[in-house]
Structure formats: C-alpha cells, structure tokens
Design goal:
Largest sheet: 6 strands, parallel
CATH superfamily of the largest domain: HUPs
Radius of gyration: 22 Å
Helix content: 25-40%
Order of helices and strands: EEHEHHEHHEHEEEHHEEEEEEH
Number of domains: 2
Shape: elongated
Number of strands: 14
CATH architecture of the largest domain: 3-Layer(aba) Sandwich
CATH class of the largest domain: Alpha Beta
Amino acid sequence: MQTHHSIHDFYSTKRTIITIGTFDGVHLGHQKILSQLVEEAKALQYESLVLTFFPHPRMVLGKENSIKLINTIEEKKLLLEALGIDNLIVHEFDTNFADLTAFDFVEKILVGKLNVGKIIIGYDHKFGKGRTADINDLIEFGKQFGFEVEQISAEEIGDIAISSTKIRKALLEGNIKLVNQFLGYTFEFTGKVIEGKKIGRTIQFPTANISIEENYKLVPKNGVYIIESEIDNILYHGMMNIGTNPTLGENQQTIEIHFFDFDQNIYKKMLAIKVLEKIREEQKFDSLEALRLQLKKDQTFSKSYFDNL
C-alpha cells in the first residue's frame, strides 16, 4: 500500500475507485465498504484509494476539539493495508479544506486530482462546506463528471448500526466486549515501558508502566482488564490496571501491566497491548495487603479466562 500525506502528492494514470471518511476504528461497518472497494478495484482494473483526514474534522471545526480516537494514524495504516488497499491518502484537514464547496471538492479534488472512476460511500456520508451535500448530490455530480456512485448500507449487529461514536462510547464505559465485537478485531494500543514506582513488586505483582505517546489515543475506562502482548515474538498473558491508584492516594492516570510467568527487563520497549476483557472497576483498598489479595483473585480469574479459550 502506498501512503500519501496530501491529495497533491497523489498521481495515477489509472482511474481510481475511492472511498472517503475518517474511518476511526476501521470497524465492521468500514470493513464492509473497504472489502467492496478492493473487490471492485480488481474487477474494474482501477486503483483502490482511501481518502482520510488528520486531524479529525471535529477537532478542527471546534465542535469536539478534545476528541480522542480509537486508532492512531499508524494503527489505521496497518489495518487498511491488511485489507488490501492500494493507496491511502492522509490529508491534513484544516479550515481551508473545510471551506471547499461540494462542487469544488468534486471538480478540483475527486476529478481533477484523484482521477475518480467510481466512489463507494456509506449511506450517511455528508461532504462539502458545512457538510451540506449528501449521497444524492454525489450521484448528481457523478452524472455530470462521469463517475459512478455506490451506496453501502449500515452494518448492524443485533439491530444496532455500528459507528465509531458508539465504539468510543463503549470504550469510555469500559465495555471492551462490545468494542471488540463492533471492531471485528481486538482493541489495542501501543506504548513505551517507562519507570514506575515499583510498588507492585513489593506485593509480588511487578508491573510494567506504559506511556502512550499519541495523546489523542482513546483508552478504556479506568478499571482492571485481561490483556495479552507479544514480546520478542512470544505471546504473554497478563492483566492491566488503568487508573489513579486510589489505594496509594494518587490522582494521575497510569497504565500498569502485570504479565504472568514473566521475568524480563522490558524497560523502554515498545509494546502493543491487546485488551480482551474487563475484570472489574478500579477500587480503593484499605491496605496494600488487601490490594494484593484482590490481585490474586484477578489473576486466578484471568488465567481461567485463557484456559477456557
């Protein structure tokens, strides 16, 4: 997959089949569109192209300038590449781009720059200044400029239409089971192992403290979770606490991971952590001993989870 960091960097003599969106999460609904894009590109002998944006339009337009996202740009790239996309354009979304009229976007960008032959788009897609144009407008533009438009309906699970907004809400509620169901893969984040206070090792639960470099990456609600991570090509199981360590009277959010049957120095390593299941909410204990006893129960629960897979 070729990655381009601007619409203006892209050039192809072949016609393209395009889909457009932020694709946060690359969830099952997105995958439905993207799989169709790849299949039709092969059939039509077009190049498949995903046009996405960063920062997220909501960050720029001021409606939700602190919005956190399910995927980092790097995670999104890997997910799209795995689906067989030919080209990804990550275009900077700014106020100038937001001010493009629907007509100018189609004429100058889709036709003039991207050589569009066909667009596959979600049923609820809006575009152009003020997001005033919809699928019906796009179909009319297609007739005018000579490209096809195909609409994809919502992907549903149990009569619930999947959306990035619903997945972000589920993450903030700690409902990791629903998150993973809607994504169609296991939610993960990547972070560096940093120096911690080493209190865990005093109660037989040494932890790796994780720092996520991308401050816009959304993590699950504070609580205790079952996780797994590959370290030097070996898969390790463990459990993770996201929270403020109320037992120790602290208030800054940390991410701490205890790996089972593990004794290696992984300080400064980058780890990709897959979040499998929630165990419980974060709790404040009366003593470190009470915390240790609960962690033993959490460990037993987690190990039985893996035994039953």
